[in-house]
Amino acid sequence: MTAKGIERVAETDIPAPAPAPARAAVAAAAGFIGLAGLELALAFGAPLGRAAMGGGHTVLPTGLRVVASVVAAFWPAAALVVLRRGGYRVAPIPFGVARAGTWVLVRLLGLGVVMNLASRSPWERYLQAPIAAVLAALCVGVARGAGNGVDRNEDAAAACVDAGGVRNDGPTGAKRTSFLR
User: Fold this and answer.
1) What is the DSSP letter of 164?
2) What is the CA radius of gyration of the chain?
3) Is the Cα torsion angle 93, 112, 135, 138 positive or negative in sign?
4) Into how many domains does the chain fold?
């Protein structure tokens, strides 16, 4: 403690920054949540229809509102997939699903770029297409840079567990049964 009551933090106490794929996963997930918000607003009748689904309506008709509500449910699932692939714990999503799902998102977003660029709506060409391109690039970064499926928060603990489920706590040789199987 110093005179003013502020503790000096040792360098080893400072957490390391998240690796680039983890940061890209968080950025992509934030973008997906933003898109979900837009789609939800469209589903509830917000006058944002010129920026989505071809830009032909200011307020979407009932059929397109239903589509917007389905799409609004899709984007949070995409956020969970990319976060899992980025190494975060996302309970309901197995790593294999996240690995394949991230590449599916890359392809869907690439298709979205092409479709938005082909739209007559300037909002889709100049706003939605770049957003989709950035999200696709982030997903490529996550998919190519992420590790082999070990959670960022569990890799150190898992390294201490041998094949028999016995945890070795380092140089002291203390061993105990682990629940990390």
Assistant:
1) T
2) 22
3) positive
4) 2
